[in-house]
């Protein structure tokens, strides 16, 4: 093979692929969001010597049949078919010139529609080589809209363990379909549904199901939707209504005869808040001089044995009535009081005694040491006599 032959071989086999030296180049696939702009690339790779391009035709494959989109003809000019006329143009200005160059017949969709999703054929009619064509698939994406909502504005806690959908998250009209997951501290179940809409988009719906209870009141549910690489989050807070949960405070175990102004307080955890508090004394009656204000019962006194018994507070909200109670015993004499003040003074006294003892011992020890220290300057005989004399103190030090 001489050098010219080698170059022809190289050009025909590597630089110019395809049969007979011409080919139509397109992308492997194209995609765009609805409403966006997208180019469908088409380039004719000519041979040397070049063949003559008689016409370029863009077609859309619809149900297996070809529908014309646009035509570029060197002598007749450019024509875009009516359904595409206001949205499709040839990108390269040279295509539309009086003496056009039709090597690059890329078309641009200005605002994509869902119905544009299809296979598109770019066909070159040449002389004398005949037809060359290639195909590209155009995919249209639709970003879904997401929404989270409470299934009902308020839920009522049931005594039966009835599971109820409490929140719904919707990821609507996406193409491809979005995905939904939940983030919350509240345990529950998730039911997902996916619908295919008539326009080819998908709607995904996810419900969070749980047993509404006092414990789940004010808990937050977050719905996380993912679409392609995008993530959206949205949250709702549960509003669970429940009956009052009641306790009676205020009885200190020291209701002695003739004590005055003792109080009981009815503490209720309820949603909605308690609208009515009622007090009663089991097998007895609340004395007429008792004062009831909101949730507090004040027995002005003086206390008598008649006031002994079980005091019940009935708390009512729109969901129901629940009771709390306390059993009160009346004693003859006040309990020996160990008020906190007394406890503190006792502790202080003990501490003071301890400190005093510590100081005394330290002083003693120091005295002995200083005497020892000064005696070291004395004659050995005196030192010995002093050491002997002070032995009892040394024992204390040990
Ligand atoms: C393609 O086929 C579907 C059903 O097979 C039909 O509903 C639709 O109208 C057809 N489209 C065209 C453009 O003929
Ligand atoms: C284009 O779409 C058609 C029909 O949907 C499919 O058969 C073909 O494999 C696709 N081509 C490419 C390159 O993805
Ligand atoms: C309260 O009265 C009821 C009947 O009215 C009785 O059965 C019950 O034993 C009484 N309780 C007390 C603590 O006296």
From TrEMBL:
<comment type="function">
    <text>Cell adhesion molecule that promotes cell-cell contacts and plays important roles in the development of the nervous system. Acts by forming homophilic or heterophilic trans-dimers.</text>
</comment>
<feature type="signal peptide">
    <location>
        <begin position="1"/>
        <end position="21"/>
    </location>
</feature>
<dbReference type="GO" id="GO:0005912">
    <property type="term" value="C:adherens junction"/>
</dbReference>
<keyword id="KW-1133">Transmembrane helix</keyword>
<dbReference type="Pfam" id="PF07686">
    <property type="entry name" value="V-set"/>
</dbReference>
<dbReference type="InterPro" id="IPR003599">
    <property type="entry name" value="Ig_sub"/>
</dbReference>
<dbReference type="GO" id="GO:0007156">
    <property type="term" value="P:homophilic cell adhesion via plasma membrane adhesion molecules"/>
</dbReference>
<dbReference type="Pfam" id="PF13895">
    <property type="entry name" value="Ig_2"/>
</dbReference>
<dbReference type="GO" id="GO:1902414">
    <property type="term" value="P:protein localization to cell junction"/>
</dbReference>
<dbReference type="InterPro" id="IPR013162">
    <property type="entry name" value="CD80_C2-set"/>
</dbReference>
<feature type="region of interest" description="Disordered">
    <location>
        <begin position="372"/>
        <end position="398"/>
    </location>
</feature>
<comment type="subunit">
    <text>Cis- and trans-homodimer. Can form trans-heterodimers.</text>
</comment>
<keyword id="KW-0130">Cell adhesion</keyword>
<dbReference type="InterPro" id="IPR007110">
    <property type="entry name" value="Ig-like_dom"/>
</dbReference>
<keyword id="KW-0965">Cell junction</keyword>
<feature type="domain" description="Ig-like">
    <location>
        <begin position="144"/>
        <end position="239"/>
    </location>
</feature>
<dbReference type="Pfam" id="PF08205">
    <property type="entry name" value="C2-set_2"/>
</dbReference>
<feature type="transmembrane region" description="Helical">
    <location>
        <begin position="343"/>
        <end position="366"/>
    </location>
</feature>
<feature type="domain" description="Ig-like">
    <location>
        <begin position="35"/>
        <end position="139"/>
    </location>
</feature>
<dbReference type="GO" id="GO:0007157">
    <property type="term" value="P:heterophilic cell-cell adhesion via plasma membrane cell adhesion molecules"/>
</dbReference>
<keyword id="KW-0732">Signal</keyword>
<dbReference type="GO" id="GO:0005886">
    <property type="term" value="C:plasma membrane"/>
</dbReference>
<keyword id="KW-0325">Glycoprotein</keyword>
<dbReference type="InterPro" id="IPR036179">
    <property type="entry name" value="Ig-like_dom_sf"/>
</dbReference>
<keyword id="KW-0472">Membrane</keyword>
<keyword id="KW-1015">Disulfide bond</keyword>
<keyword id="KW-0812">Transmembrane</keyword>
<keyword id="KW-0677">Repeat</keyword>
<comment type="similarity">
    <text>Belongs to the nectin family.</text>
</comment>
<keyword id="KW-1003">Cell membrane</keyword>
<dbReference type="InterPro" id="IPR013783">
    <property type="entry name" value="Ig-like_fold"/>
</dbReference>
<dbReference type="InterPro" id="IPR051427">
    <property type="entry name" value="Nectin/Nectin-like"/>
</dbReference>
<feature type="domain" description="Ig-like">
    <location>
        <begin position="244"/>
        <end position="329"/>
    </location>
</feature>
<protein>
    <submittedName>
        <fullName>Nectin cell adhesion molecule 1a isoform X2</fullName>
    </submittedName>
</protein>
<feature type="compositionally biased region" description="Low complexity">
    <location>
        <begin position="373"/>
        <end position="383"/>
    </location>
</feature>
<dbReference type="InterPro" id="IPR013106">
    <property type="entry name" value="Ig_V-set"/>
</dbReference>
